[in-house]
Amino acid sequence: MVFFSKYMFPSASENTSRDILDILGIFMVLLGYLLRIIARGEKAQRNPDGKTLVTEGLYQLTRNPMYLGTLFIGLGVSLVLFRWWVCFIFLAVYLAIYIPQINREEEKLVKIFGDKFRNYCKTTPKYFPRVSGLLRIQPKKYLKLKLSWVKKELNSLIWMFISIIVIQGWRDLRLFGHVKYGKEIFEAVLFLTILFTIFILNYGKNNHPRKS
Question: What one-character-per-residue DSSP string does 49-63 give?
Answer without folding.
Answer: TS-S---SGGGGT-S
